[in-house]
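Consider this today:
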Amino acid sequence: MVEYGVAKFILPGQGESGDYHLVCCNRNGMLVAAIDGIGHGEEAANASKAAATLLRSSADEPIISLVERCHEKLRATRGVVLSLACIDRDHGMMTWLGVGNVQGVLMRADAKKGNVRESLLLRAGVVGSQLPALQATVLPIVRGDTLFFATDGVRSDFSVTLSARENPQRAADRILEQYRSGNDDALVLVSRINGISP
């Protein structure tokens, strides 16, 4: 249903990344998420993994409920910022939501039908600590639309170079190579949507 690529950078001196990704099937399609544990190192990684485990086990729930459940589960951790998207293959819709600073961009496969680029509205906060009022956005999607998530170890100007036609793994590797800041963990997740009727 999606073809995806992921690229990661672990801050030198740390044993593991605090940035984590999730791509899993749910009842209606797919759940895609990029998660950034606050700080870096083992404690950040533990918070990210806990969030990913909950998201995977509850992937059929509505997106706002998922984030609220993560918030409750992560109260004893450093917390995370995250962006996630539910792709509904039967209705050709994507619902997405972001808390914190994990950037999200949807590049349209067909630029003739209006906006070629949609940017995720991010709400300030930390899941597990300070949860903002949550509001998800619903967008129509078609085969070939491509979703990009990047954690804050990637400079925000990466979005000017995006194309829905670039191979997802090549795009993830290129963005990380060209735009990582080098002073934080970094993760780029690129998901091309294939399982939607044209």
About this structure: The longest strand covers residues 29-37. Residues 42-57 form the longest helix (16 residues). The chain has three helices and eleven strands.
